[in-house]
Amino acid sequence: MASEEELFASVDALLNEEPHLPPPAERARLREAAGITQARLATALKTTTQSVKNWENGRSEPKSPRLDAYQRLLSGWAAKYPAHGAPAVTPAPAPALNPEPVAETFTGPAVPEAPAVVEVPVAQAESATSRRPAKKRSAPVADSRFPHGPLAVLDGDGSAYGVDGIVLDCPATTIPELVEWTLRESGLGAAKLNRYGKDSDPLIVLTAAAAVKLGLPERLEGHEQRRSLRLPEDHPVVKEVAKAKWQLTQRGFGPWARVYRKAQGRERQCVQLAILSWDALDPRSWPGVAEMEPADVARVLGVYATRVITPRGSTAVSGLELMTALRPPTKAVQDPTAGNWVSGHNAGSLGSGPMDPAPPEATPEHPVVVNSGWSGGFLNEEAYQWVRSVDTLSDEECTLPFAVGLDLNTAFLAAAARLVVGLSAPDHFHAPKFNPKIPGSWLVDLSHIDLDPRLPSPFTPDGTRPTGPAWYQTHTLAYAQELGHDVHPIEAYLRRETGAYLDPWHDRLKNAYVDTLADLGVTKDLDDRQFLTAMEQHKQADPAMAAVLSAIKATVKGGVGKLRERPQGKSYKEGERWPALERPTWRPDIRAAIISKARVNMHRKLNNMVKMSGLYPLAVLSDCVVYPSPGESPLDFLPYAASGKPQPGGFRLGPTPGLAKLEGVQSMLWAVDLMEKGLNPARHIKGGDAVLDEGE
After folding, report:
1. What is the rounded CA–CA span in Å between residue 17 and residue 26?
2. What is the pLDDT of residues 392-437, one digit of tens each?
3. Angstrom distance (rounded) from CA 476 to CA 383
4. What is the C-alpha to C-alpha distance for residues 167 and 132, in angstroms, rounded to an integer?
5. Whole-angstrom Cα distance, residue 162 to residue 154?
6. Is 435 exposed, middle or buried (0-12, 13-18, 19+ CB in 10 A)?
7. At a CB cut-off of 8 Å and minimum separation 6, what does 54 contact?
8. Within 10 A of 77 (CB to CB), how many other CB atoms are there?
9. What residues contact 567, with CB distance under 8 A and at least 6 apart?
């Protein structure tokens, strides 16, 4: 005989079971008896008409909390409209999901095909479940075509987590079904960033469980970096995609896969997929995100998509795509002869076709170099990697107890502000007069300029004095003039059409950076001491938003680096064109202009620091500079006016791009020891994060 404990355990198990719905045919009968259309029911339950159809023909079942609401509704209808021959009964009251009566949920017009969505309340996020839905946030005014935001993170149980805490029901069991659902039912996507641009394709991020459910391997394995791996063409999923008349881009089915068909009129048919377990989110750019719960991944990527762009690959790829999205290459123009509208050049953009650089702007393996036999040298505008000679240290400097690192916030983004770059092809000139307003590459001899050895030379990345004629970008030579030196170019490659191409890119990323720092408690109204305290704590304040901040910074550096993406793969042969060269955004001259201006900005601050305080740096690595200090805070050596305000022109603390923050503190003896070994203290303080990534 069963014990009391066993009986109660069995009863509790029954109570905890999912609520049972009547058979599909009965669901349809009850709805029709109530005089409610499928579209109207879909609106009330915040789902799609197709989902209601699926429930009524037995193809799928709703999930909680929609399941509970649907059962409550069917129970009420069953009491009012019993089956023929069955007595009417009063159903037991179901737990209320909201304080309003059920009848009031049907007010308002029916909206056909309203995508399935469940609003996840904050209380649920605090429950004992393993999944933590995203925190509710005030959302910007959404495009009515994309009511559920730009993306969703799909888990193995069919739950697709979107922005602002919504959860969509996704019934797909194959990649083609997922693509169809995304385009037809999900309500995902984002409006174009420029009136002449294109809407952002919806992004579906797959967890490991979702990938396996859809027939994909949980991991991609091989001797190459996992982000470079692809499914073989004979893989069942790849064949499945082709059989359903969908296509993959030339990149194939990898961590970031694009599945598309040719657009129908103005309607794009393309879905971006990202597979978390295939290392789609590089931990260097998205620290800790791949290990987060699906709802938190959706929150991180959703904030990034709203403030920057819907991710389309690595942060480097997204940085480059953002340039094009904000400055589309074409726009509709009217043909003066035929009177119809055709695609024409969008002024201020880089155009729709690739443009070869001048030979000194190219890389040694580029066809314009190999095919022409160019041997005249190359532009060498790179970030600083300089360490001061130990022989130039004074006794006073050696006795200071600390070496303090200052890192400029997104220095390369600050350099992109109001930066005039070339928009047309380069023209060759012999012995031109230097003009600081014309972007281009100039061959000039600056070896005669003698500068203080306690500062890096502003003309070379390693900070050493030039030894003869070399190619320089316009900003470098303009700074030489600013320092009072004559500039006499030998020859130059200049561009006649110019413009501030990167202005919208700079403005959008700057706002994203400042807004995200503010979310982490680092705001513009803080004084320097409060700012340093906030910066010490900001990563712990909200790991999700800290990951967004990291991704924004990586987008800047990666986007700039990808302007000169080098060939990849063992099969490449020197002199061949590689895929990146076919992009209008393969522009090494623009990359050089950004880096040149950033390096000049750094040297100008170093020079001003000497004038204001007599302080000389120990080392500079990219956007980080190390100073000897009597204390472990920048407040111990930065120059301040009598009023307490920072002196203009030097390094200032703050959250704005181009201003400084504390990067690291070490002992002065440690720094001197590194310098004696020929090593750069800035590199060790920053952990080596200085290279402008040229893409993956």
Report:
1. 21
2. 999 999 999 999 999 999 999 999 999 999 999 999 999 999 999 9
3. 12
4. 12
5. 9
6. middle
7. 60, 171
8. 22
9. 365, 576, 578, 580
